[in-house]
Design goal:
The chain has 352 residues and is an alpha/beta fold. The protein folds into two domains: 130 residues, Nucleotidyltransferase, domain 5 (2-Layer Sandwich); 183 residues, 2-Layer Sandwich (Nucleotidyltransferase, domain 5). It is 39% helix and 18% strand. The chain has a six-stranded mixed beta sheet with strand order 3-2-1-4-6-5, sandwiched between helices. α11 links the parallel β10 and β11. α9 crosses α10. 41% of the residues are buried. The model has no long low-confidence stretch (mean pLDDT 94).
Length: 352
Amino acid sequence: MTNEKSRVLVLNPGATSTKFGVYTQDGAEWEHTIRHGDDEIERFRGKPMLARLDYRAGLIEQTLADAGYAAEAFAAAVGRGGILPPLPCGTYLVDEAMVEELRLARRGQHASNLGALLALRFAQAAGVNAYIVDPVTVDEWQECARLTGSPLIERTSIGHALNTKAVARRFAREQGSTYPALRLIVAHLGSGITVSAHQDGRMIDSNSIEEGPLGVDRTGGLPVRALARLCFSGQYTESQLDRQLFGDGGLFAYLGTRDLIEVERRIDEGDSVAALVFDAMVYQVSKEAGAMAAVLKGKVDAVLLTGGMAHSEKLVRQLRSYMEWIAPIQVYPGDDELQALAEGVFRVLSGE
């Protein structure tokens, strides 16, 4: 590999994978994904998310070296943005204040919190800047979306803004239109699920990570009074209960696996419990999309399905049966997050 300073190292840590790649302004030069299975997740159980930093950094470093990339080969490094204070969409320099916010994790533990710190580690090795783009706390909600039913609790925007907005822009380009000109519902179907409404180039509402459909390992929304009783039952400490809700919930809580392919295999073998839980997830995603259709007052140009679970033909087929009445459905399996991260940095490097 040459060492010309035209490459950006892109890092996207998730709950069950670490995706990373080397990008030029022409697109991806090289990409790789490391999967983190249940055994590995169990190894770090009960520990703060940043306990995984050295481990994941070591895996990335070795993989890059095996691929022939030296530490000094990059013009910048960029990571997925974590749970930070509410921010407009855009590209941000990783600085001391951001690092401290992520280390304290006052707003929550999440794999995305590793993104800025991984980027900083590799950027320092190359002697360049580290960035994040469109963090999970991008907040473009309309004001009425923030109210709950109590002034004690306000809804907060935490979701998959990076991929959601990248897919929305991609769809607009394919239609010969612009993102601000379209009214869209986007369902990001990954280890977490975010269903969002888009109008005038803004994500005006969505479910947060504490709400919405059950996911691979997250409960989604729960009956409030039942949850309150559980909090004071003495069965769990705060951290244990948080883990039950976010990390050991959803498909995993019912079926003991985070692997959708395994769930579908069980269904094909006649497992009625697996079928019921799968159907419940589809049902809840569809209900959330219906809610977002109401947010857009029924005027929706398209429904976009994206994220890793959108590779599942069974899942997409069942979602279509619920949601085709809303608007035409377009499927973008996987995600555009690495490309979106790279584009955000190249806009900065080129002076835009």
